[in-house]
């Protein structure tokens, strides 16, 4: 099941792309699993996802805790805590 | 009336206040956020999640409309490169009476800071660049409104 990944702020800078299409195995059940699976690629992914406590997510354009199940998700964004206003 | 703006362009608070005054209430309140030039800041770059920003801002406005008897809400947030003195964000509320307008305005800016997908990157005169870290006091300010 392909998922459209989006990255923002320093997560985007460390990974080096604004987004990518990924196709994780069925064992990747939550956003945390997805982060761990992507970090295992090494390089920018490993650097960006080194400390999951600094990461937040949106699943299909709604903020979601990292333990959210990703079954059926089409778009998942990973980013630092927001700093607007 | 709920009006949401997510834009690179500047906005005119006077125009927005006039829109709110035209709604027939007895009170209009507003907050305008500006780029500070602290520490030799020369540019603040605002990044956002284009697919969800407007929806997230509208959800915050709808929550305010549930909590207070408001006639109108205007929320505008800019993105892109800004310089000290530039306006970043505008919150305006109109209501029959002052309390609802003032309280809703404070609620809206507190929640916007934690519930809208924006990120700030600061660039300083000495060449350093860094992403602004989220502040615990912003979370606390949002949390004081509950739910």
UniProtKB/TrEMBL annotation, chain A:
<keyword id="KW-0547">Nucleotide-binding</keyword>
<protein>
    <recommendedName>
        <fullName>Molybdopterin synthase sulfur carrier subunit</fullName>
    </recommendedName>
</protein>
<dbReference type="Pfam" id="PF02597">
    <property type="entry name" value="ThiS"/>
</dbReference>
<dbReference type="GO" id="GO:1990133">
    <property type="term" value="C:molybdopterin adenylyltransferase complex"/>
</dbReference>
<dbReference type="InterPro" id="IPR012675">
    <property type="entry name" value="Beta-grasp_dom_sf"/>
</dbReference>
<dbReference type="InterPro" id="IPR044672">
    <property type="entry name" value="MOCS2A"/>
</dbReference>
<dbReference type="InterPro" id="IPR003749">
    <property type="entry name" value="ThiS/MoaD-like"/>
</dbReference>
<dbReference type="InterPro" id="IPR016155">
    <property type="entry name" value="Mopterin_synth/thiamin_S_b"/>
</dbReference>
<comment type="similarity">
    <text>Belongs to the MoaD family.</text>
</comment>
<dbReference type="GO" id="GO:0000166">
    <property type="term" value="F:nucleotide binding"/>
</dbReference>
<dbReference type="GO" id="GO:0006777">
    <property type="term" value="P:Mo-molybdopterin cofactor biosynthetic process"/>
</dbReference>
TrEMBL record, chain B:
<comment type="subunit">
    <text>Heterotetramer of 2 MoaD subunits and 2 MoaE subunits. Also stable as homodimer. The enzyme changes between these two forms during catalysis.</text>
</comment>
<protein>
    <recommendedName>
        <fullName>Molybdopterin synthase catalytic subunit</fullName>
        <ecNumber>2.8.1.12</ecNumber>
    </recommendedName>
</protein>
<comment type="pathway">
    <text>Cofactor biosynthesis; molybdopterin biosynthesis.</text>
</comment>
<comment type="function">
    <text>Converts molybdopterin precursor Z into molybdopterin. This requires the incorporation of two sulfur atoms into precursor Z to generate a dithiolene group. The sulfur is provided by MoaD.</text>
</comment>
<dbReference type="InterPro" id="IPR036563">
    <property type="entry name" value="MoaE_sf"/>
</dbReference>
<dbReference type="GO" id="GO:0030366">
    <property type="term" value="F:molybdopterin synthase activity"/>
</dbReference>
<dbReference type="Pfam" id="PF02391">
    <property type="entry name" value="MoaE"/>
</dbReference>
<dbReference type="InterPro" id="IPR003448">
    <property type="entry name" value="Mopterin_biosynth_MoaE"/>
</dbReference>
<dbReference type="GO" id="GO:0006777">
    <property type="term" value="P:Mo-molybdopterin cofactor biosynthetic process"/>
</dbReference>
<comment type="similarity">
    <text>Belongs to the MoaE family.</text>
</comment>
<keyword id="KW-0501">Molybdenum cofactor biosynthesis</keyword>
């Amino acid at each position: 099941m392909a998922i459209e990944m989006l990255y923002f702020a320093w997560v985007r800078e460390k990974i080096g792309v604004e987004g990518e299409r990924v196709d994780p195995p069925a064992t990747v059940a939550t956003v945390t699993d997805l982060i761990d699976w992507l970090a295992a690629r090494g390089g920018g992914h490993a650097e960006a996802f080194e400390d999951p406590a600094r990461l937040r997510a949106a699943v299909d354009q709604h903020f979601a805790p990292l333990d959210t199940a990703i079954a059926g998700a089409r778009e998942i964004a990973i980013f630092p805590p927001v700093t607007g206003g | 009336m709920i009006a949401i703006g997510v834009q690179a362009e500047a906005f005119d608070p006077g125009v927005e206040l006039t829109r709110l005054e035209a709604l027939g209430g007895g009170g209009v309140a507003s907050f305008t956020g500006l780029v500070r030039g602290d520490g030799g800041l020369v540019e603040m770059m605002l990044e956002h999640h284009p697919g969800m920003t407007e929806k997230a801002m509208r959800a915050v406005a709808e929550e305010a409309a549930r909590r207070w008897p408001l006639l109108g809400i205007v929320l505008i947030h800019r993105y892109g490169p800004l310089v000290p003195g530039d306006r970043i964000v505008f919150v305006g509320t109109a209501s029959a009476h002052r309390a609802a307008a003032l309280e809703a305005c404070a609620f809206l800016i507190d929640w916007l800071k934690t519930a809208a997908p924006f990120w700030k990157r600061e660039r300083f005169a000495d060449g350093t660049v860094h992403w602004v870290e989220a502040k615990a006091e912003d979370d606390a300010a949002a949390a004081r409104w509950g739910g």
